[in-house]
Amino acid sequence: MDLFPYAKKIEMKLEHFNFYNAVEIIENFSFFNYYKKLSGNKDYFQSLMLEERPGRIKNELYCHDIEIYNAYYYRFCLKCFERDSENGVPYWHITHNLPGVTYCEKHQCKLVSSDVKFNGKKLIALSNQVKISELPLLNDWEEKILKLISEQTVYLFYKKDSTRDTNTAYISYLYESGYLKDFALDEKSLTNDFMLFYSDSICKIINIDKKYVISTLIRRIKEAATGDIHPLFHILFLIFCGKKIKHLNENNQLTIPFDSDLFIEKTCKCFDGFFIHNSTLRFRKEGLIGSVKCSCGNYYGIESWNMKIEVRYGEKFTEQVGELLFVEDLPISEISSKLNISKSDLKNYLISRRNSARY
User: Fold this and answer.
1) CA-CA-CA-CA torsion for 53, 162, 100, 169, nearest 10 degrees?
2) Residues in CB range of 92: below 8 A, 6 or more apart
3) DSSP 309-349
């Protein structure tokens, strides 16, 4: 169910029914939509599934971790089973069997486990002949976390857009949570708190090693690595930070981890201490480096270890300068005060604009 290399064969066998093509089969009847949303190379991912070479799929994706976090046996919802039986034939639901899912998104009830091995050699159709066992019930807090994991996993599967760069948002979340101090990550506290947040019972049910999860995430965040990690890791981290998948794709404001007066002095008046999601932050040995883009278009390159700030002014700033200088005919001192920029910086900006105009 998770990933399969036979979509083209299915397309050929069912083409006289005007069925889906191979790409649509992959998107509708596999875990592809789950894995691709946080993948930097979804086209390559899809090409592996169309090559009809099953070994390459699991050998080349997610460092061989891709199937470790699947459940051992297929899961299903008893209420969905009853509804499907009334409407025709009961079937295995993809969303019930995504990694980490223990609740039915439709009925908000706990799934049951079957005796059918996940991706075993023989796939047995869902019927009354399938034996079931109840998933263990945990305490209220643990069940709340399991519901959140299930909810976010299904949301990731169905959502239309992809998220590729999570580093900037994660650095912001770590700063908000108090794990980023003096531009350095408090790895020990973060690891200890993450280990306490997810109980051993939760980890056993969703089949993860929490120490490996947080160490992988820390390495990914610090190194700004481009390789893919399992989507379940992202979901666990976001829930730990009190966030959701949708926050990664919204242009909502993220708290910037620079509260120095020097930084605020260097920025324009409309800058309010937040930056939008398409800005970038990265860890370096000395601290943080990155860029911040204000809503007016001004761009700030930052090096945290010496609070060096390089400003590249946007179109709005250029228009404001032109209005104040040529229309209102204000002196440099008054313009610099209105735009929150030093007289020397404003003069340098005007000189650079004049020189660029020559060419």
Assistant:
1) 130
2) 1, 74, 76, 126
3) EEEE--HHHHHHHHIIIIIS---HHHHHHHTT--HHHHHHH
CB atoms within 10 A of CB 197: 16
Q: Could you give the percent of the chain with pLDDT greater than 70?
A: 83
The Cα–Cα gap between 264 and 253 comes to: 17
DSSP 8-class letter at 123: P
In this structure, what is the dihedral angle of CA atoms 174, 175, 180, 181, given to the nearest 10 degrees? Answer: -160
**Best CA proximity match to 74, nearest among 93, 90, 100:** 93
Percentage of the chain modeled with pLDDT above 90? 39
Count the Cβ atoms, other than its own, within 10 Å of residue 104.
22
Name the pTM for this structure: 0.84
Residue type, 123: L
- pLDDT at position 62: 52
**Nearest-angstrom CA–CA distance, 357 and 61:** 50
Tokens, residue 77:
């919802």
Of 170, 247, 250, 257, which is closest to residue 216 (Cα–Cα)? 170
